[in-house]
Design a protein that fits this description.
Shape: globular
Structural class: alpha/beta
Largest sheet: 5 strands, parallel
Radius of gyration: 20 Å
Order of helices and strands: HEEEEEEHEEEEEHEHEHEE
Helix content: 10-25%
Strand content: 15-25%
Strand order of the largest sheet: 11-9-12-13-14
Distance between the termini: 52 Å
């Protein structure tokens, strides 16, 4: 795709790399990178969020440090397609500003598991809160590994919870189909549809449809993919389960 087309698509990007750095900091693990780029595609601001390490923030006045630096290549070149990774400005600004009000001087990198936000006195390079935002809508099941997530047990609660992310980035949205009695996930799906129809889709990294109802899961995936959402059918996923054993319906 040409650079002019990419510029028209947007200037903010979020992309995950499923590989380590390959240097002395490879223990940081895989990472998610955020970019704001100029009209020429060169990065202006950049955030690197590592699974098992820090989140590093670069921008005017702090282009580099001992861990790396601001990208030195245009994202609008012919080598890679960045169109699928465009995000809203609000999503980038939320990540950029997530350390506000939590900053303290830092000297050495702490592991991301500590969920610490720190910065240098220069106010340009941050270790940002790297907790992933996850929403689970399921009437009975929870995440078996105890990962941090906001949980809704009904479609009405799911709609209310999802609306809190109307102008915020959500890493993962997990959807069950049957929510007990006559309740289903469709009111939540309709909110996602309506937002996309209005050309303001929710900014969700991935929607995981983990329903054990194969027909329902397939229909959810078909509808949401039609509106451009990234959907993964995860029926039978071991990530969710009945922590106290199945409850009879």
């Amino acid at each position: 795709m040409s650079g002019s087309t990419l510029t028209a698509v947007g200037r903010f990007y979020r992309r995950r790399w499923e590989e380590s750095r390959g240097d002395e900091f490879r223990r940081f693990g895989h990472s998610v990178w955020y970019f704001e780029v100029g009209d020429d595609g060169w990065p202006i601001r950049q955030i690197e969020v590592y699974d098992h390490g820090p989140a590093l923030r670069y921008g005017p006045g702090q282009e580099e440090d001992q861990y790396g630096g601001l990208g030195q290549a245009s994202l609008h070149g012919p080598e890679e397609e960045w169109g699928p990774f465009v995000i809203a400005r609000d999503a980038f600004e939320h990540a950029w500003n997530s350390a506000d009000g939590q900053a303290e001087h830092w000297g050495s990198v702490r592991p991301a598991a500590n969920q610490v936000a720190e910065h240098e006195a220069a106010d340009h390079h941050y270790l940002v809160d790297v907790r992933r935002t996850i929403v689970l809508i399921d009437d009975l099941r929870s995440f078996v590994d105890g990962r941090g997530a906001e949980v809704a047990r009904t479609s009405a609660a799911g709609v209310r919870l999802l609306r809190r992310y109307r102008d915020r980035f959500l890493d993962e949205l997990w959807l069950d189909h049957d929510l007990g009695g006559d309740d289903t996930i469709w009111p939540v799906v309709e909110i996602l549809e309506q937002a996309a129809f209005e050309k303001r889709p929710f900014d969700v990294g991935v929607i995981n449809v983990h329903s054990a109802n194969p027909g329902g899961a397939a229909k959810i995936a078909q509808v949401l993919r039609h509106w451009g959402y990234r959907v993964r059918v995860a029926s039978g996923s071991a990530d969710v389960g009945y922590l106290d054993g199945p409850t009879a319906s």
